[in-house]
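Quick start: what a row looks like.
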Amino acid sequence: MKKSLLINIALSRLIASLGHGDRVVIGDAGLPVPPGVEVIDLALCRGIPDFSTTLHAIVSEMQVEQHFIAAELLHAASRPLETIETMTREKLLGSRQVVHHDDFKQHSRQARAIVRTGEYTPYANIILCAGVVF
């Protein structure tokens, strides 16, 4: 049995398969999944799992060199935004790109997978771009 924080089989497999520049989206319960993009649906009910817990678990195993968020997320204080800001200061999320929400959805078409959470906070979405550990 794995000793690390992340024990979800599908997420572990996804992260192990990533190459430099590959993208993973963590999305709220309402983020649309583009045709052809794998969805790993973790949503159980409203708020479970939440965005912040999911982001922490994924980043515990994924090297991130850059992330994208929607500009709309920056307009209201929220726990997801606080988590992103803290993890950015801790240098866990690499550099930041802020885009309009419609552009965010276009960028998500290039993702290897979208991880759907039970988060109900508007615009609580992030695209993580894989880095390298060397």
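That is the whole record. Strands lie at 23-27, 38-41, 64-70, 95-99, 113-116, 126-130. Helices lie at 9-17, 51-59, 79-89, 101-107.
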